[in-house]
Amino acid sequence: MSVHAYRGRASSAEGSRRRGSASSRPPSGDNGRSAASGPPGWVILVVVFVLVVATDQASKWLTWRHFDATVINDGGYILLGSARSWFARPVPGAVANLVGVVLITIGLAVLLRRPRRPAVTVGAGLVAAGWTSNVLDRVGLHEWSAPGSGRGVVDFIPSGGSSRCNLADLWIALGLILVSHQIIRRRRQLRSPVEALPSASKCGHLPADGS
Asked: How far apart are CA 25 and CA 28, in angstroms?
């Protein structure tokens, strides 16, 4: 075997190894970032919960004393339709609050099972924290934020007609938007490598087996 032939095979083998290592690398952009980068998920959730509950309860405390349009919503969420009245009844209301606590706990447990992108953790945390702050109103915290009122959630932000919402509801809406954006972005990133395959063949790249 000649020296030139040996060098040619060595160069071919080296090229194959480089192509293999390049194909094993994660794609550039957000897909290559580690989900575990940044602070731990539980730290993000603690910060989000403190921010949401503190701002929501403080706004309820202030508006109950200084804003005449503040009301007590003894029903449930507007999306529940006629089922909203269940929250105003003693037994169904207590059951609904218990179900809410269980769902929040399960959701947080699922969220913390594995590392996730900080934006996903923040978005889901906003939803859970906003929901928690409203549940706290129903289980008795309204006696601090709105003393002398009946059991229910303190609402003061006009949301169409005679209905009202509160800062916790806005945090929930923001969290849903953030999570939805991350889901759409992730799906687009998962489709992008597949869509890039035809363009790679057009540029003259051949498959590894040379066919």
From this structure: 9
| 161 belongs to a structural domain | yes
Residue 202 to residues 71, 80, 158, 207: CA-CA distances in angstroms?
Answer: 65, 53, 57, 12
19 in any annotated domain: no
Whether residue 29 lies inside any domain: the answer is: no
Please report whether residue 32 resides in a domain.
no
CA distance linking residue 23 with residue 25, whole number of Å: 5
Residue 6's pLDDT band (cuts 50, 70, 90): very low
Q: Is 122 exposed, middle or buried (0-12, 13-18, 19+ CB in 10 A)?
A: buried
Structure token digits, residue 74: 């003894």
The whole-model pTM stands at 0.70
- Residue the block writes with tokens 């303190």: 154
Domains identified in the chain, total number: 1
122: which residues sit within 8 A by CB, 6+ positions away? Answer: 44, 48, 175, 178
By residue count, the chain amounts to: 211
